[in-house]
Design a protein that fits this description.
Layout lengths: L1 H21 L11 E6 L14 H10 L4 E3 L5 E3 L2 E6 L5 E6 L13 H12 L17 H5 L9 E5 L2 E5 L7 H4 L31 E7 L3 E6 L12 E6 L3 H9 L5 E4 L4 H5 L8 E5 L2 E7 L9 H9 L3 H9 L3 E3 L22 H10 L9 E7 L2 H15 L4 E7 L1 H9 L5 E7 L10 H4 L16 H10 L5 H18 L2 E13 L3 E3 L15 E2 L4
Parallel strand pairs: 1-10, 15-16, 15-17
Antiparallel strand pairs: 2-3, 4-5, 5-7, 6-7, 8-9, 9-10, 11-18, 12-18, 13-17, 13-18, 14-18, 19-20
Helix pairs in contact: 8-10, 14-15
Length: 532
Amino acid sequence: MKRIICAGLLIFGFLTVITSLTGCCDNSLDNTNVFSTYISSEPSNLDPARGVDVNEAVIQSRIFDGLVRYNEKMELVPDLAESWEISKDGCEYIFKLRQNVTFHNGKKFTSADVVFTLDRILDPKTASPRTWVLEKIDGALDRMNGKTDKTSGIKALDEYRVSIKLKEPFAPFICLLTTPACYILPSESKEAFKGSDFFNKPVGTGPFFVKDRVRDSYIKLEANKDYFLGKPQVDSIFVKIITENLKAELEFECDTIDLLQLYPSNYDRFKAMPKYENRIVDVPALNTWYIGFNNQEAPFNDVRIRKALNYLIDREKIIKAIYSGRAVPAIGSIPPGISGYDSKPTEICFNPEEGKKLLAEAGYNEKNPLKIELYQKAQQSAFEITRFIQGELKNYGVVVELKPMEWSALKDAINKGEAKAFFMNWFGDYPDGENFLYPLFHSKNWGSGGNRAKFKNEEIDKLLDEVVKITDEKLRSQAYDRINRKIVEQAPWIYLWHCSESYVTSPRVKNIDFYPMFFCDKGLNISLNQKE
Protein backbone atom coordinates (compact mmCIF):
# COMPACT_ATOMS: atom_id res chain seq x y z
CA MET A 1 0.00 0.00 0.00
CA LYS A 2 2.81 2.40 0.85
CA ARG A 3 4.41 1.94 -2.58
CA ILE A 4 1.06 2.54 -4.32
CA ILE A 5 0.53 5.76 -2.38
CA CYS A 6 4.04 6.98 -3.17
CA ALA A 7 3.65 6.11 -6.84
CA GLY A 8 0.36 7.98 -6.94
CA LEU A 9 1.93 11.03 -5.38
CA LEU A 10 4.79 10.89 -7.86
CA ILE A 11 2.42 10.64 -10.82
CA PHE A 12 0.28 13.49 -9.46
CA GLY A 13 3.41 15.59 -8.87
CA PHE A 14 4.73 14.86 -12.36
CA LEU A 15 1.41 15.82 -13.98
CA THR A 16 1.32 18.99 -11.89
CA VAL A 17 4.81 19.93 -13.04
CA ILE A 18 4.00 19.23 -16.72
CA THR A 19 0.77 21.24 -16.46
CA SER A 20 2.57 24.19 -14.93
CA LEU A 21 5.35 24.00 -17.50
CA THR A 22 3.14 23.75 -20.55
CA GLY A 23 1.35 26.84 -19.33
CA CYS A 24 4.50 28.83 -20.00
CA CYS A 25 3.82 28.64 -23.74
CA ASP A 26 0.98 31.12 -23.27
CA ASN A 27 3.45 33.80 -22.12
CA SER A 28 5.99 34.00 -24.94
CA LEU A 29 8.29 37.00 -25.07
CA ASP A 30 6.78 40.04 -26.72
CA ASN A 31 8.63 42.53 -28.90
CA THR A 32 10.54 44.23 -26.11
CA ASN A 33 14.24 44.92 -25.87
CA VAL A 34 14.54 42.62 -22.85
CA PHE A 35 16.90 39.65 -22.86
CA SER A 36 15.42 36.80 -20.84
CA THR A 37 17.70 34.16 -19.34
CA TYR A 38 17.98 32.01 -16.21
CA ILE A 39 20.25 30.68 -13.49
CA SER A 40 19.84 27.39 -11.67
CA SER A 41 19.54 28.66 -8.09
CA GLU A 42 18.80 31.79 -6.12
CA PRO A 43 22.01 33.84 -5.58
CA SER A 44 22.29 33.74 -1.81
CA ASN A 45 24.89 36.49 -1.66
CA LEU A 46 25.54 39.41 -4.02
CA ASP A 47 28.37 40.70 -1.82
CA PRO A 48 31.51 40.12 -3.95
CA ALA A 49 33.65 39.60 -0.86
CA ARG A 50 31.44 36.78 0.38
CA GLY A 51 30.31 35.14 -2.84
CA VAL A 52 31.45 31.60 -3.66
CA ASP A 53 28.77 30.45 -6.10
CA VAL A 54 28.73 30.55 -9.91
CA ASN A 55 25.19 31.94 -10.00
CA GLU A 56 26.19 34.73 -7.63
CA ALA A 57 29.14 35.67 -9.82
CA VAL A 58 27.01 35.66 -12.99
CA ILE A 59 24.80 38.40 -11.48
CA GLN A 60 27.68 40.26 -9.82
CA SER A 61 29.56 40.53 -13.13
CA ARG A 62 26.71 42.63 -14.58
CA ILE A 63 26.45 44.94 -11.54
CA PHE A 64 30.10 45.57 -10.66
CA ASP A 65 33.47 46.21 -12.27
CA GLY A 66 37.02 45.37 -11.22
CA LEU A 67 40.29 47.15 -11.84
CA VAL A 68 41.05 44.83 -14.77
CA ARG A 69 39.15 42.14 -16.65
CA TYR A 70 39.44 39.53 -19.39
CA ASN A 71 37.77 40.03 -22.76
CA GLU A 72 36.22 37.27 -24.90
CA LYS A 73 39.70 36.37 -26.23
CA MET A 74 40.97 35.96 -22.67
CA GLU A 75 43.19 39.02 -23.04
CA LEU A 76 43.80 41.12 -19.94
CA VAL A 77 42.32 44.57 -20.56
CA PRO A 78 41.61 47.71 -18.49
CA ASP A 79 38.35 48.05 -16.59
CA LEU A 80 38.10 50.65 -13.82
CA ALA A 81 41.87 51.09 -14.09
CA GLU A 82 42.77 52.66 -17.43
CA SER A 83 46.42 51.58 -17.12
CA TRP A 84 48.93 50.06 -14.69
CA GLU A 85 52.65 49.70 -14.07
CA ILE A 86 54.55 46.88 -12.37
CA SER A 87 57.87 47.52 -10.65
CA LYS A 88 61.00 45.76 -11.88
CA ASP A 89 61.11 43.54 -8.80
CA GLY A 90 57.47 42.51 -9.42
CA CYS A 91 56.35 43.64 -5.97
CA GLU A 92 54.49 46.90 -6.62
CA TYR A 93 51.49 47.53 -8.89
CA ILE A 94 50.41 51.12 -9.53
CA PHE A 95 46.98 51.55 -11.11
CA LYS A 96 45.82 54.75 -12.82
CA LEU A 97 42.04 54.93 -12.50
CA ARG A 98 39.40 56.19 -14.91
CA GLN A 99 38.01 59.61 -14.03
CA ASN A 100 34.64 59.42 -15.79
CA VAL A 101 33.01 56.73 -13.66
CA THR A 102 30.09 56.99 -11.25
CA PHE A 103 28.31 54.42 -9.12
CA HIS A 104 24.64 53.63 -9.71
CA ASN A 105 23.74 56.03 -6.89
CA GLY A 106 25.56 58.92 -8.60
CA LYS A 107 28.64 58.89 -6.34
CA LYS A 108 32.00 59.51 -8.05
CA PHE A 109 34.42 56.60 -8.27
CA THR A 110 37.89 57.31 -6.77
CA SER A 111 40.90 55.53 -5.33
CA ALA A 112 39.23 55.58 -1.90
CA ASP A 113 36.72 53.01 -3.18
CA VAL A 114 39.51 50.68 -4.35
CA VAL A 115 41.39 50.89 -1.05
CA PHE A 116 38.19 50.35 0.93
CA THR A 117 37.05 47.37 -1.18
CA LEU A 118 40.33 45.44 -1.13
CA ASP A 119 40.97 46.13 2.55
CA ARG A 120 37.42 45.00 3.37
CA ILE A 121 38.11 41.55 1.89
CA LEU A 122 40.98 41.10 4.36
CA ASP A 123 39.11 42.61 7.33
CA PRO A 124 38.30 39.67 9.66
CA LYS A 125 34.90 41.26 10.40
CA THR A 126 33.91 40.68 6.76
CA ALA A 127 34.55 36.92 7.13
CA SER A 128 35.34 36.65 3.44
CA PRO A 129 36.07 33.15 2.09
CA ARG A 130 38.12 34.84 -0.65
CA THR A 131 40.99 36.28 1.40
CA TRP A 132 43.36 33.97 -0.52
CA VAL A 133 42.94 36.29 -3.52
CA LEU A 134 44.83 39.06 -1.71
CA GLU A 135 46.91 37.24 0.89
CA LYS A 136 50.14 37.95 -1.06
CA ILE A 137 49.77 41.69 -0.36
CA ASP A 138 52.17 43.19 2.17
CA GLY A 139 50.43 43.38 5.55
CA ALA A 140 47.55 41.14 4.47
CA LEU A 141 48.18 38.46 7.11
CA ASP A 142 48.34 41.01 9.92
CA ARG A 143 45.04 42.49 8.72
CA MET A 144 43.43 39.05 8.46
CA ASN A 145 44.58 38.19 11.98
CA GLY A 146 43.16 41.42 13.42
CA LYS A 147 46.58 42.86 14.32
CA THR A 148 46.01 46.06 12.30
CA ASP A 149 42.99 48.13 11.24
CA LYS A 150 44.18 48.57 7.65
CA THR A 151 46.32 46.73 5.10
CA SER A 152 49.71 48.43 4.83
CA GLY A 153 50.29 47.31 1.24
CA ILE A 154 47.17 49.01 -0.17
CA LYS A 155 47.40 52.82 -0.49
CA ALA A 156 45.82 55.68 -2.42
CA LEU A 157 48.61 57.78 -3.95
CA ASP A 158 46.09 60.43 -4.96
CA GLU A 159 42.44 60.61 -6.01
CA TYR A 160 43.00 58.44 -9.11
CA ARG A 161 46.10 56.36 -8.40
CA VAL A 162 46.40 53.28 -6.20
CA SER A 163 49.51 51.38 -5.10
CA ILE A 164 49.39 47.69 -4.17
CA LYS A 165 52.60 46.20 -2.77
CA LEU A 166 53.26 42.49 -2.42
CA LYS A 167 55.48 40.95 0.24
CA GLU A 168 57.31 39.03 -2.52
CA PRO A 169 56.90 38.58 -6.29
CA PHE A 170 53.76 36.70 -7.30
CA ALA A 171 53.47 36.70 -11.10
CA PRO A 172 49.75 35.72 -11.38
CA PHE A 173 48.67 38.50 -8.97
CA ILE A 174 47.04 40.73 -11.58
CA CYS A 175 45.00 37.72 -12.76
CA LEU A 176 43.51 37.47 -9.27
CA LEU A 177 42.28 41.06 -9.48
CA THR A 178 39.87 40.02 -12.27
CA THR A 179 37.92 37.70 -9.96
CA PRO A 180 34.48 38.70 -8.58
CA ALA A 181 35.89 39.07 -5.05
CA CYS A 182 37.72 42.20 -6.23
CA TYR A 183 34.73 43.97 -7.75
CA ILE A 184 34.74 47.54 -6.45
CA LEU A 185 32.16 48.78 -3.93
CA PRO A 186 31.36 52.40 -2.97
CA SER A 187 33.22 53.35 0.19
CA GLU A 188 30.46 55.86 1.07
CA SER A 189 28.08 52.93 1.63
CA LYS A 190 30.19 51.10 4.20
CA GLU A 191 27.73 51.90 6.98
CA ALA A 192 24.91 50.40 4.91
CA PHE A 193 26.82 47.09 4.71
CA LYS A 194 26.05 46.55 8.37
CA GLY A 195 22.36 46.20 7.51
CA SER A 196 20.84 43.30 5.65
CA ASP A 197 19.33 45.09 2.66
CA PHE A 198 22.27 46.70 0.79
CA PHE A 199 23.35 43.51 -0.96
CA ASN A 200 19.77 42.62 -1.85
CA LYS A 201 20.03 45.39 -4.48
CA PRO A 202 23.71 46.36 -4.35
CA VAL A 203 25.26 49.49 -5.83
CA GLY A 204 28.15 49.14 -8.26
CA THR A 205 29.58 50.85 -11.33
CA GLY A 206 28.57 48.10 -13.79
CA PRO A 207 26.49 48.17 -16.98
CA PHE A 208 23.35 47.00 -15.14
CA PHE A 209 21.73 47.59 -11.76
CA VAL A 210 19.09 45.60 -9.86
CA LYS A 211 15.72 47.14 -10.73
CA ASP A 212 13.50 44.50 -9.17
CA ARG A 213 13.96 41.20 -7.39
CA VAL A 214 11.71 38.45 -6.05
CA ARG A 215 13.72 35.76 -4.29
CA ASP A 216 13.53 32.28 -5.80
CA SER A 217 11.65 33.75 -8.76
CA TYR A 218 13.57 36.40 -10.74
CA ILE A 219 16.04 39.28 -10.81
CA LYS A 220 15.49 42.19 -13.22
CA LEU A 221 18.65 44.03 -14.22
CA GLU A 222 18.14 47.47 -15.77
CA ALA A 223 20.67 49.00 -18.20
CA ASN A 224 22.96 51.70 -16.78
CA LYS A 225 22.58 54.51 -19.35
CA ASP A 226 25.64 56.28 -17.93
CA TYR A 227 27.99 53.31 -18.09
CA PHE A 228 31.54 54.43 -18.85
CA LEU A 229 31.97 51.94 -21.72
CA GLY A 230 28.64 52.90 -23.27
CA LYS A 231 25.02 51.94 -22.68
CA PRO A 232 24.21 48.21 -23.10
CA GLN A 233 22.33 47.30 -26.28
CA VAL A 234 19.39 45.78 -24.39
CA ASP A 235 17.19 47.78 -22.05
CA SER A 236 17.25 45.10 -19.39
CA ILE A 237 18.11 41.49 -18.58
CA PHE A 238 15.39 39.39 -16.95
CA VAL A 239 16.99 36.53 -15.01
CA LYS A 240 14.65 33.74 -13.95
CA ILE A 241 15.49 31.27 -11.19
CA ILE A 242 14.89 27.84 -12.77
CA THR A 243 16.20 24.96 -10.70
CA GLU A 244 15.22 22.07 -13.01
CA ASN A 245 16.84 21.40 -16.40
CA LEU A 246 13.56 20.04 -17.79
CA LYS A 247 11.70 23.22 -16.87
CA ALA A 248 14.44 25.35 -18.47
CA GLU A 249 14.20 23.31 -21.68
CA LEU A 250 10.43 23.69 -21.86
CA GLU A 251 10.58 27.42 -21.17
CA PHE A 252 13.16 27.83 -23.91
CA GLU A 253 11.02 25.93 -26.41
CA CYS A 254 8.04 28.02 -25.32
CA ASP A 255 10.07 31.16 -26.15
CA THR A 256 10.01 32.54 -22.61
CA ILE A 257 13.79 32.51 -22.24
CA ASP A 258 16.38 33.36 -24.89
CA LEU A 259 19.29 31.18 -23.82
CA LEU A 260 19.62 27.54 -22.77
CA GLN A 261 22.67 25.66 -21.59
CA LEU A 262 22.97 22.26 -23.27
CA TYR A 263 24.23 19.00 -21.80
CA PRO A 264 25.14 15.65 -23.38
CA SER A 265 21.59 14.48 -22.66
CA ASN A 266 19.87 17.13 -24.77
CA TYR A 267 22.53 18.43 -27.16
CA ASP A 268 21.72 16.10 -30.06
CA ARG A 269 17.98 16.74 -29.73
CA PHE A 270 18.39 20.48 -30.23
CA LYS A 271 21.03 19.97 -32.91
CA ALA A 272 18.50 17.94 -34.90
CA MET A 273 15.93 20.77 -34.84
CA PRO A 274 16.11 23.05 -37.93
CA LYS A 275 15.03 25.97 -35.76
CA TYR A 276 18.08 25.63 -33.51
CA GLU A 277 20.76 23.69 -35.40
CA ASN A 278 22.61 26.87 -36.43
CA ARG A 279 22.09 28.61 -33.10
CA ILE A 280 24.23 26.29 -30.98
CA VAL A 281 27.56 27.61 -29.72
CA ASP A 282 30.30 25.43 -28.22
CA VAL A 283 32.54 27.52 -25.95
CA PRO A 284 35.96 26.16 -24.96
CA ALA A 285 35.82 26.35 -21.17
CA LEU A 286 38.70 26.45 -18.70
CA ASN A 287 37.87 23.24 -16.88
CA THR A 288 39.17 19.82 -15.95
CA TRP A 289 36.99 16.77 -15.27
CA TYR A 290 38.44 14.03 -13.12
CA ILE A 291 37.89 11.22 -10.66
CA GLY A 292 39.76 12.12 -7.51
CA PHE A 293 41.20 9.68 -4.98
CA ASN A 294 41.93 10.13 -1.31
CA ASN A 295 45.67 9.57 -1.73
CA GLN A 296 46.13 9.00 2.02
CA GLU A 297 43.71 6.09 2.35
CA ALA A 298 43.86 2.48 1.09
CA PRO A 299 43.61 1.34 -1.60
CA PHE A 300 44.40 4.68 -3.25
CA ASN A 301 47.55 5.34 -1.24
CA ASP A 302 49.13 2.82 -3.64
CA VAL A 303 50.36 4.65 -6.76
CA ARG A 304 50.13 1.38 -8.76
CA ILE A 305 46.35 1.32 -8.34
CA ARG A 306 45.98 5.00 -9.24
CA LYS A 307 48.06 4.51 -12.38
CA ALA A 308 46.27 1.29 -13.28
CA LEU A 309 42.87 2.98 -13.26
CA ASN A 310 44.19 5.74 -15.51
CA TYR A 311 45.42 3.10 -17.98
CA LEU A 312 42.02 1.37 -18.01
CA ILE A 313 40.04 4.45 -19.11
CA ASP A 314 39.57 4.96 -22.85
CA ARG A 315 39.00 8.71 -22.84
CA GLU A 316 38.57 9.01 -26.59
CA LYS A 317 35.82 6.37 -26.56
CA ILE A 318 33.90 8.08 -23.76
CA ILE A 319 34.25 11.53 -25.33
CA LYS A 320 32.93 10.21 -28.62
CA ALA A 321 30.01 8.42 -26.97
CA ILE A 322 28.94 11.13 -24.52
CA TYR A 323 30.17 14.42 -25.95
CA SER A 324 30.21 13.53 -29.67
CA GLY A 325 33.82 14.67 -29.71
CA ARG A 326 33.23 18.04 -28.00
CA ALA A 327 36.00 17.53 -25.45
CA VAL A 328 39.77 17.10 -25.28
CA PRO A 329 41.36 14.17 -23.40
CA ALA A 330 43.20 15.36 -20.32
CA ILE A 331 46.95 14.72 -20.19
CA GLY A 332 47.19 16.57 -16.88
CA SER A 333 45.17 19.11 -14.92
CA ILE A 334 45.99 22.16 -17.10
CA PRO A 335 43.49 22.72 -19.95
CA PRO A 336 44.37 23.94 -23.46
CA GLY A 337 44.84 27.69 -23.77
CA ILE A 338 46.38 28.03 -20.31
CA SER A 339 50.04 28.72 -19.51
CA GLY A 340 51.71 25.38 -18.83
CA TYR A 341 49.59 23.31 -21.19
CA ASP A 342 51.60 21.23 -23.64
CA SER A 343 49.91 18.84 -26.04
CA LYS A 344 52.78 16.35 -25.87
CA PRO A 345 51.57 13.06 -24.34
CA THR A 346 52.14 12.21 -20.68
CA GLU A 347 51.81 8.85 -18.92
CA ILE A 348 48.04 9.33 -18.95
CA CYS A 349 46.88 7.15 -21.83
CA PHE A 350 44.74 4.11 -22.58
CA ASN A 351 46.90 1.04 -21.95
CA PRO A 352 44.74 -1.80 -20.54
CA GLU A 353 47.51 -4.40 -20.53
CA GLU A 354 49.70 -2.20 -18.34
CA GLY A 355 46.68 -1.40 -16.18
CA LYS A 356 45.85 -5.05 -15.56
CA LYS A 357 49.51 -5.77 -14.83
CA LEU A 358 49.68 -3.06 -12.15
CA LEU A 359 46.43 -4.24 -10.56
CA ALA A 360 47.83 -7.77 -10.37
CA GLU A 361 51.04 -6.47 -8.76
CA ALA A 362 48.90 -4.69 -6.16
CA GLY A 363 47.09 -7.97 -5.38
CA TYR A 364 43.85 -7.58 -7.32
CA ASN A 365 42.50 -10.19 -9.74
CA GLU A 366 39.27 -12.01 -10.69
CA LYS A 367 39.08 -13.73 -7.31
CA ASN A 368 39.90 -10.53 -5.44
CA PRO A 369 38.50 -7.68 -7.55
CA LEU A 370 39.18 -4.02 -6.78
CA LYS A 371 35.97 -2.50 -5.42
CA ILE A 372 35.37 1.24 -5.54
CA GLU A 373 32.62 3.41 -4.07
CA LEU A 374 32.44 6.38 -6.45
CA TYR A 375 30.82 9.44 -4.89
CA GLN A 376 29.13 11.86 -7.26
CA LYS A 377 26.58 14.64 -7.56
CA ALA A 378 23.01 13.33 -7.82
CA GLN A 379 22.49 14.79 -11.29
CA GLN A 380 21.49 13.20 -14.59
CA SER A 381 24.44 14.62 -16.52
CA ALA A 382 26.82 13.13 -13.93
CA PHE A 383 25.12 9.72 -14.11
CA GLU A 384 25.55 9.62 -17.88
CA ILE A 385 29.31 9.81 -17.42
CA THR A 386 29.82 7.69 -14.31
CA ARG A 387 27.66 4.83 -15.58
CA PHE A 388 29.77 4.70 -18.72
CA ILE A 389 32.97 4.65 -16.65
CA GLN A 390 31.42 2.00 -14.39
CA GLY A 391 30.80 -0.20 -17.42
CA GLU A 392 34.28 0.35 -18.86
CA LEU A 393 36.05 -0.60 -15.63
CA LYS A 394 33.81 -3.65 -15.21
CA ASN A 395 35.41 -5.02 -18.40
CA TYR A 396 38.69 -5.26 -16.47
CA GLY A 397 37.29 -6.72 -13.26
CA VAL A 398 36.97 -3.44 -11.34
CA VAL A 399 33.67 -3.17 -9.46
CA VAL A 400 32.34 0.40 -9.16
CA GLU A 401 29.39 1.27 -6.92
CA LEU A 402 27.92 4.72 -7.60
CA LYS A 403 27.13 6.86 -4.54
CA PRO A 404 25.00 9.87 -5.58
CA MET A 405 24.68 12.73 -3.10
CA GLU A 406 23.25 16.23 -2.88
CA TRP A 407 25.96 18.79 -3.75
CA SER A 408 26.62 20.29 -0.31
CA ALA A 409 26.64 16.83 1.30
CA LEU A 410 29.02 15.57 -1.40
CA LYS A 411 31.48 18.40 -0.81
CA ASP A 412 31.31 17.78 2.92
CA ALA A 413 31.99 14.05 2.50
CA ILE A 414 34.97 14.74 0.24
CA ASN A 415 36.46 17.46 2.43
CA LYS A 416 36.19 15.22 5.49
CA GLY A 417 37.91 12.38 3.65
CA GLU A 418 34.89 10.09 3.82
CA ALA A 419 34.75 9.75 0.03
CA LYS A 420 37.75 7.74 -1.14
CA ALA A 421 36.86 8.19 -4.83
CA PHE A 422 34.76 11.01 -6.29
CA PHE A 423 33.70 12.37 -9.67
CA MET A 424 34.42 16.09 -9.83
CA ASN A 425 35.44 19.00 -12.01
CA TRP A 426 37.46 22.16 -11.57
CA PHE A 427 36.63 25.43 -13.33
CA GLY A 428 39.37 28.03 -13.34
CA ASP A 429 39.06 31.22 -11.32
CA TYR A 430 41.54 32.89 -13.67
CA PRO A 431 43.38 31.77 -16.83
CA ASP A 432 46.78 30.86 -15.44
CA GLY A 433 48.45 27.49 -14.91
CA GLU A 434 48.93 28.34 -11.23
CA ASN A 435 45.17 28.09 -10.71
CA PHE A 436 45.16 24.50 -12.03
CA LEU A 437 48.12 23.37 -9.93
CA TYR A 438 48.52 25.22 -6.63
CA PRO A 439 44.95 24.92 -5.25
CA LEU A 440 44.59 21.33 -6.47
CA PHE A 441 47.91 19.78 -5.44
CA HIS A 442 49.72 21.88 -2.83
CA SER A 443 49.46 20.11 0.53
CA LYS A 444 48.39 23.30 2.36
CA ASN A 445 45.12 23.21 0.39
CA TRP A 446 43.80 19.84 1.57
CA GLY A 447 40.00 19.65 1.55
CA SER A 448 37.99 22.79 0.83
CA GLY A 449 41.11 24.62 -0.35
CA GLY A 450 40.96 22.59 -3.57
CA ASN A 451 43.28 19.64 -2.90
CA ARG A 452 40.42 17.23 -2.31
CA ALA A 453 42.66 14.30 -3.27
CA LYS A 454 44.81 15.00 -0.18
CA PHE A 455 47.85 14.76 -2.43
CA LYS A 456 51.13 15.49 -0.67
CA ASN A 457 54.61 15.70 -2.18
CA GLU A 458 57.29 17.91 -0.64
CA GLU A 459 59.10 18.40 -3.95
CA ILE A 460 55.87 19.50 -5.65
CA ASP A 461 55.06 21.87 -2.76
CA LYS A 462 58.46 23.53 -3.10
CA LEU A 463 58.18 23.85 -6.88
CA LEU A 464 54.70 25.38 -6.60
CA ASP A 465 55.95 27.90 -4.05
CA GLU A 466 58.85 28.95 -6.27
CA VAL A 467 57.29 29.03 -9.75
CA VAL A 468 55.08 32.05 -8.98
CA LYS A 469 58.20 34.17 -8.50
CA ILE A 470 59.19 33.72 -12.16
CA THR A 471 58.10 36.92 -13.94
CA ASP A 472 59.09 35.81 -17.46
CA GLU A 473 55.85 34.34 -18.84
CA LYS A 474 57.53 31.87 -21.20
CA LEU A 475 59.83 30.49 -18.51
CA ARG A 476 56.97 30.28 -16.02
CA SER A 477 54.80 28.42 -18.55
CA GLN A 478 57.61 25.90 -19.11
CA ALA A 479 57.93 25.46 -15.34
CA TYR A 480 54.19 24.81 -15.01
CA ASP A 481 54.44 22.12 -17.69
CA ARG A 482 57.29 20.38 -15.82
CA ILE A 483 55.36 20.49 -12.54
CA ASN A 484 52.21 19.22 -14.23
CA ARG A 485 54.09 16.22 -15.62
CA LYS A 486 55.69 15.44 -12.26
CA ILE A 487 52.24 15.37 -10.65
CA VAL A 488 50.87 13.15 -13.43
CA GLU A 489 53.61 10.61 -12.65
CA GLN A 490 51.97 10.20 -9.22
CA ALA A 491 48.44 9.90 -10.73
CA PRO A 492 46.53 11.54 -7.85
CA TRP A 493 43.40 11.48 -10.06
CA ILE A 494 41.97 9.67 -13.02
CA TYR A 495 42.46 12.52 -15.48
CA LEU A 496 39.44 12.59 -17.81
CA TRP A 497 38.94 15.54 -20.18
CA HIS A 498 38.42 19.25 -20.76
CA CYS A 499 35.00 19.85 -22.32
CA SER A 500 33.28 22.77 -23.99
CA GLU A 501 30.25 24.51 -22.55
CA SER A 502 27.37 24.45 -25.04
CA TYR A 503 24.51 26.91 -25.41
CA VAL A 504 21.63 27.48 -27.80
CA THR A 505 20.02 30.88 -28.40
CA SER A 506 16.48 31.76 -29.40
CA PRO A 507 15.75 33.32 -32.81
CA ARG A 508 15.27 36.65 -31.00
CA VAL A 509 18.98 36.86 -30.23
CA LYS A 510 20.90 38.85 -32.83
CA ASN A 511 24.25 38.84 -31.03
CA ILE A 512 25.69 37.53 -27.77
CA ASP A 513 29.29 37.10 -26.67
CA PHE A 514 30.46 33.91 -24.95
CA TYR A 515 33.46 33.66 -22.68
CA PRO A 516 35.58 30.71 -21.49
CA MET A 517 35.11 32.05 -17.93
CA PHE A 518 31.57 32.54 -16.68
CA PHE A 519 32.12 35.84 -14.82
CA CYS A 520 33.73 37.74 -17.70
CA ASP A 521 30.44 38.52 -19.47
CA LYS A 522 29.10 41.99 -18.67
CA GLY A 523 26.17 41.60 -21.08
CA LEU A 524 27.16 44.75 -22.99
CA ASN A 525 27.00 43.27 -26.47
CA ILE A 526 23.75 41.32 -26.23
CA SER A 527 21.39 42.50 -28.96
CA LEU A 528 17.96 41.29 -30.06
CA ASN A 529 16.13 41.12 -33.37
CA GLN A 530 13.27 43.57 -33.22
CA LYS A 531 10.07 43.37 -35.28
CA GLU A 532 9.36 46.44 -37.38
